[in-house]
Predict the structure.
Amino acid sequence: MSSGGQSLIPQGPRPLNPQDPYHVSRQNGPQPIGMSSQYDARDPYYPTLGAPGAHSYTDDGGANQGFYANNMGYEHDNQSRQLLMSGQQGPNDQYYAQGNQNYITGNHAYGTQNAAYPAAGATASGVAENDSLVRYNEATGEKGAATGASRPKSRKWLWWIIGAIVLICVILAAVLGGVLGSRSANNDDDNNNNTSSPESSVGSGKPVSNIASAWPSNVMDAASKAASNGKKDNLAYTGTDPYGNPIFIKEANTNKPSKGQQVGSCGKDPWKATNNLNNGRPGHPRLIAPQYLWDCLESKISNDAYLTVWNYTIFQNATEWLNEKPVTYDVDGGLTLSGILDVSRIVQQRLKAWAYAWRLTKDTKYKDRAFQEMSVAAGNTSQPFGNGATRWNPDHFLDTAEMIAAYAFAYDWMYDAWDDQQKSYIVDWIVTYGLQQGMNMYNDGSAWWSQPASGNGNWNCVCNGGLVFGALAIQNDVQGDAKNTTNSILQTALNNAKENCMRGVYQDGTWSETPNYWYFGTNGHARMLSALMTATGSDQGLMAKNKNWYKTGDFHMYVTGNAGLFHYGDNGPNKFSTTANQLFLFSQQSGNPVYALFQRDRADAAADPLSMFWYDTSSTGGFYNGLPLDRHFDNKEGNWVSMRSSWTDMTGNYIAMKSSNMTGHQTHGDLDAGDFVIDALGTRFVGEYGSDNYLSKNYFASEDDGADRWKYFRKGTQGQNTIVIGQENQNASCQPANKFESSNDAQSGDLNYSPGEQSTALFVTDMSQCYSQPSGSVKRGIRFLNGRRQVLLQDEIKKTGKEIQWRVQTNATVSLSKDKKTATLKIKQINDPNASKDPLTAKIDEVTMLATITSPKDATFAVGPAYDKGKSEPNYYYGANDIPPQDKDDNGQPIQPEVLDYEVSVLSITLDGNSDANIQVWWQPQYPESSKSDQATPKNVALDQWSLTSH
């Protein structure tokens, strides 16, 4: 019991009362976490926060468990559908609205895979039509629109949409955009370089209202009390918007980020570290959270608001998952395609939560259910699960690695719960189905992910990370051949990770693949790093291999826009235990509180037990106070820029552009030099498709020029927001020359911060090499205008003699003026494409963006659907006949090579290329109020002459 008085850990099982509506499982439909009165303070059995009592599971012969869905294939989650991506990615698959009629909700229960709301979900009861006068992109009868689209029939898995709306452990009750409150009395805001305010502020001017709390009132009360006990920050938000962004409250601590004293009374680790890989910490637990950290956890929870609400969420999940049936051996696309990766992740998510719950309560129901899950996935029951020693599918070793980590969590954290026979079983399963399989692949050379040419990405980090994690879990408890295997794995996998996984982060912090694969790769790395430190006393030289690794925290923050990630390349919705909570560990180890402060208020922070040990409770303040608005990530392999008007006003403007070499990204990139996104007024107007169907023929075979990958609509240049010349793809191997300038504004502690009228940033790229043209022939620039209220996009293209097409992909409904020089883009609803069945639709007050051609005089817009519903294929601008013949799926049917998205429009400008071209498009968010400067046509200044003061 902490000094705070009230214990926040469940004190044992509660008798089941069949008359208690809080204990009638699913009687009247599922209750979302945070909305359920299961933990209502009026309940006399629960004076403290914790898990509900008795639950039962009845084996009905191994019926399918829930929806695994969203398996993006070879490495991540094989999805064959997604829309223009505009949302925060996280492991959840739904969000909840309470007290706000702008959200359409239904009553479908989905989400046994859901990290935060395992028992409940909501779907769209229909899709509202956008009744504005539009030419394209009116809502159809299909589920989708705005950021979602119709779902093609899938073979076995429900294909999940990308795009973006992910919420973990939060209830949303606000329309997109805005922040609450004004500057707090304790702000430290002396770091704004442009103090003169523009004539009108950036953003919609419509703060969010009618916000419901993300947690029940008694949980919020306990969080407030914990913050008071520990003299630490209270929760800075009450919920998140549909993109996972926190809706900050005026009481939030907006001081500059700093680190003080940790809460609780953990003291020093009693073990004197040996720093010896083969002679580490004795006993258990030894992975991530040794016993002394568990001993002080209740005290920490009682003195920290964030730990309080996270603990609540973890227990909700752990208890709900007791009702779910064990996983089934469901193979997606083939054992060497997507395999059983989702199955492995479900097992890991469950075992980790149950191990956490057992460790704090010693309630045997968690232990019993965990062993049942492990027995099934080890083929030790009558329920079939794979074959022999390869039942964890080493041919797709991600599956095996994630399963190893799952069993390692259960073995180590629940060690005291197992009897000797159970321990023997678990160790044997880890060695036989996991470690030995990895050693075999290293010995016979089939571990392709360990090779230098293919090792700098998520595969290497996850595969080696799982092997090291499992070996560390059991190394003190094995002898003979098993001991030899464990020791060999530790040496081999760790050394290989040092040389390969550690190359996954470039010198500037950019992840080598894509923003979404950052989650999977850095998550696997973080588990390995943390386990090495607690089990052996050091990282064994891992971090010394890349001194810039922790900069990847900056990458994640800046690639996160107001309406989700800048989703270049292959991207899909996260799920299960894939979160950004490794930022907590990176903050802890680097001493930079900004990473922790950024992540703690995000939608995906709450449901992961690792957050309870990685989060540095000494972190305080607002991550944004003093944080520059712009950043150029200038590594040549992944050159890109991020520019915004505010870190806290999500109705403000965000633009990002990428222009770099398009090879060396583990075959996850696009032909996308000059590609960009624009967020404004609380949503995304220019967006990204993300992945195509991972099962498409030769999708990952090569990234060389002419490769089949580039023939697919979403991967070639025609599927990007850039220039197409001569109806041809860009060159994959090219090196654009880029220039970046910024007024170097950093946000103050004002939640309503708006940059000064002189504030701006610009990015210019010479893409000539990507089109086989002489230097200076094809250039593109993007910049803010009028105090970051508007955006200017300009292209300068020398005479080519070939047709030039300027292309933009948008989810907005689009209408054109009579002269076709102004396009009006309108959005009044967004969808949750991460919902595991039907999209959940969120209405928003209609917002409008104008795109106006100011040069050349004879240029006009055209607009058309990106996909042809009648033909069930994209409207190819070129190359429609080049798609290779497809393989067949498990049912003998040809694989649909293209993800179909009937709600996306392509806005284009076409020129004949017979003269030099200067294309200038002026992007104007339509704010509630406008200023004279908003009406002023921007100057036409040559890109070489662009400067901070040129406009």
Notes: The mean pLDDT is 82. The first helix runs from residue 217 to 230. The CA atoms of residues 145 and 903 lie 5 Å apart. DSSP finds 16 helices and 27 strands in the chain.
